[in-house]
Structures are given as structure tokens and as C-alpha cells.
Design a protein that fits this description.
Blueprint lengths: L3 E5 L11 H14 L9 E3 L13 H10 L8 E4 L2 H4 L3 H15 L2 E4 L9 H33 L11 E4 L2 E4 L4 H12 L4 H10 L12 H8 L7 E4 L15 E4 L8 H18 L1 H6 L10 E3 L6 E3 L4 E4 H4 L9 E2 H18 L4 E2 L7 H26 L5 H20 L10 H18 L6 H9 L2 E7 L4 E7 L1
Parallel strand pairs: 1-2, 1-3, 3-4, 9-14, 13-15
Antiparallel strand pairs: 5-6, 7-8, 10-11, 11-12, 14-15
Helix pairs in contact: 6-9, 6-13, 7-8, 12-15, 13-14
Amino acid sequence: MKIAAAYIRVSTDGQLEYSPDSQLEKIREYVKKSDMILPDKFIFREEEGVSGKVAKKRPEFMRMIGTAKRKPKPFDVIIVWKFSRFARNRQDSIVYKSMLRKQCGIDVVSVTEQIGDDKMSIIVEAMIEAMDEYYSINLAEEVRRGMNEKVTRGEPVAAPAFGYFMKDKKYYIDPDTAPVVKMIFSEYIGGMGCRAIASQLNAMGIQTRRGGRWENRTVEYVLRNPVYIGKIRWNPNRKTRRNFDDPGIITADGGHEHLLDDETWKEAQAALVENKRMYGKSAGRKKPAAVMLQGLVKCSSCGSTLSKGAGNSLQCTGYAHGKCSVSHSIKINRLEEMVLTAIEANLKASDIVITRKPAPKTGYQAEVIEKQIVRERQKLSRIKTAYEDGVDSLNEYRENKQKILERITQLKNSLPVQDIPQKRMDIKKFCGQHRDLVRLLRDPHIGAEQKNLMLRSFVDKIVFDRTKSRVEIYYYL
């Protein structure tokens, strides 16, 4: 008597009439009629929604193949309701069926698609496999076309982004996570990097939408998602899903409420572009800072950045593109000397104005922390109930309570304090801390890229006025 195995998978295209239970019922009927045995341990059932397109992404399928390779062979035949349950990819179907037959001596049988043993059955089986693959490809195209149409109408086609929840197929602002989104944008605009923001969120105990830890790429994904200004974005190309510049991306106006104002969004996008240009991987490999002042000097006429032009000089990019009427061309070494002399004079006289960064938008951070404190207090109530119900012992209750109280104290200590007027002592301390940096900035043995990073650690921007031949240095904490 032959021993059989059953492989069951529900189609992702909504064929609810062929449920896992109904497939198993048909397989059991076939097994009984064919005088076989089907042990429960050889019933391999995929979770609902698992696609048949790629075999390696089906855990139960791969477990079945691994079991089939054991010696001696554990079963003689694999029974499926339809061959399309086994695979919807001709390559996978041919590879795995051939391997099972030649290496393991195991056949694959369909309950509803009976194939004989003659040579014509090879053609019939190949035709069935081709039709299954055609159906899969055609279905994917139809689904993609339908999703594209939904996006153009401003309808959601994906799970809600962090900061929103979905109800009645529409996005709504989540009052618990929306302040976190606002805090992320506020901190980034204020000068904090993606990695630092991710560390801050993890330290605060905030999880991503999927319940994981934050990384710099997940923070960047939030910063680049136009859903927060009422847009719906869809990238039908799975291979470039995180390529935000893919020309195939579809963006349309959605019908949901804006979480951010347009000005905040534009500031963040401008900061992303500038930071990618200065510190991105490709920029770091191909075009390191060749000038100490790169990206820092602004035109006094139009505000554009001065960049390296022809020869050993800097020029206003606005003037170079015909958008500024005043040339600010100047030799690099001359401008560097002007800047260093100005910084030396400012720090020596303690006659500077300091801009505090990040920008004073701490209300979002305070709101997020307060919500975290509320959640921790709710945990206190739950662990007390668990102790009273006898679920936790007294020692477990004490340990959990101590951890939560420590967490609440930590959160309270991280609440942002209200910004106070700048004191003279702040300026003196700032000047004293940065005087030695000027000596390093004049050191010829230190490269331009390293000097550029030094300047950026305390200089916000440098405004060059060519008509008056002077520079204004703007510092920040």
C-alpha cells in the first residue's frame, strides 16, 4: 500500500470555494479510492495568502521537498488538488517534479487533472503547466492595472503609513503616532540625522508600524513619503520598491487629511537633497569635499550656494544658471582666508549670535513622550491585575513594577525643557570651546573634507557679499 503526502495551498486570487479544508477533503477521497494511506504528519498546508509564483517563498512546500529527500523515502506520491497548487511557474514545476521523480522516486498527482503514463501525457502536463503560468502572469498584470487605476483616483492600495490608520478603505490620522511623525520631521529639519532620530525613537520605546526597531532607512522612508501631504504613492515595480526616484512611480492626490503642512514637507525634502549631496554614499565615494567651504557659503544677493567653478574659484550657482544678476566669483584661497580671519575675530571678541538647533518645535517631542508615559502607566495597571489574578508571583510583580517605574522616570527626564534666553555666559563658553578648531582649520596636513566637517559642527552658514568684500558667519549650538 502506497503512502501519500498532501500539499495544500489557497490561491491568492480569491478562489474561496477551494478552501484548504475542501482541498483536503477531495484529496482524502482520492486517497481512499486509490487504496493509499495519508498520515497527518505528511499533510503540508501553506498559510492563506502565500503565492505559488516562487517555490522558495513557500515554507511548507520547501519543508515537503526536504522531507521527500530523506532516505528511505518517507512517502511514494504527493497529491494536490490541482497542479497549479504545486506551482504556477513552469521552471519550478519542471525542476521539482523532475527531482522528485528521478532522485526520490516520488510522483506528483492531481486529483482533478488526471494524466496517463503514455508519451502524450508529457505534452498534456506541459500544456497544463503553461496555462497555469499564463494565468498567474495575466492575473498579476490585471491586479497591477487595477491598482494603478485606484491610485489615479486617489484611493489607497497599500497598508496605511506610520501616522495613519485605515477605516472604510480610507486613511485617517492616528492620534497616537501622528505626533511621532511630526517630531521626526521637526528633528530632521532642525539638523538631526536619520540615524540619530532612529536611536532617539528606539530609546523612547517607540516601534515602527510593523512593531520593529527604527533604522536610518525607516526614518528616511517616513521623511520621503508624500502621504503626509495628502498624496497616494504607488510603485508597481517590485524590484525598485524603495527607489523613490523610479520614473514608474505613480503619485496622485488622495482624499485623506494632511498630517503636515506643505512648508514643513518642502523644508525636509530640501534638507534630504542637501544631505545626500554632501554625505550620501555615492557622493562620499565619487565626489568628496574638495573645498573646505563646500556647501556652506551663500550668495548675499539670491541666497544660492557658492560652488566650485572654472579654475580655482567659487561662484554663485544661481548666477551660473542665469537666475542671479550678481557675480560672486572669488578665488578659493582668498575666501577661505576671509572666513578663517572672521571666525578668529568673532571667537576672540565673543561677539557672535548663536542659533540654537534643532529649531524650537519641541511640542511634538513632549507630546510623544507624554503618550509613552501614559502607556507605561497602563502597564502598571495590567501587571497589578495579573498579580491579583494569580498569573504573576509577588516577586515577578515587584520586578516588573520596578522596571516600569524606572522607565517612567527615564521618560520624564527626557522631556524637553523650555528654551531660555541666550546668556552672555553661553557665548563665552561657545567661543572658548571652538577657538582651538581654527588652528586645525589652518593646518595644511588636514584634508579639505575633514575641515568641511569641522566647520559644519558649529557653523550654520556663511554669507558672502562680493560688493562689500566681506563675510558674515552664522553659528549654531
